[in-house]
Amino acid sequence: MLHEVFKLLAGNSFFEILLIAVALDTILGVLRAIKEHKFNSCVGIDGAIRKVAMLLSVGLLMLTDIIMHINVLFMVPDKYIQLLGIQKMGVCEFFCLLFILYEAVSILKNMTLCGLPVPERMREYIQKFLDDMTDEMPKEEE
Predict the structure, then answer these.
(1) Cα 134 to the chain's mean position, in Å?
(2) Are 54 and 99 in contact (CB under 8 A)?
């Protein structure tokens, strides 16, 4: 059964995109820590635990999909189904999409904080989000 889960995850484009997003976010997070001279092993370990837990939960959700044959495409509008070109979306793929979006926000945050070019409107949104929800934005010196 476990072999089947690994085989299905290996051929799952949603999972592959999630792996790429996790890797990119990790790399940008390390680069940000280097730039800011703020290496914090507690933060790094917490982030690594979160990412491993995310990937393990996707594996368990794939196992759930295998056992229960879940398909949540009925909740997705037809134009998106055609755009994605998929026939089935289990709970695993659904959560992969949610995790990809979560990682994308984190990637954009790290890009903004590293000083990389981010589209103006998106950078403004990310900066407002970080100001409102976290204490990660550097305070402007007067």
Answers:
(1) 18
(2) yes
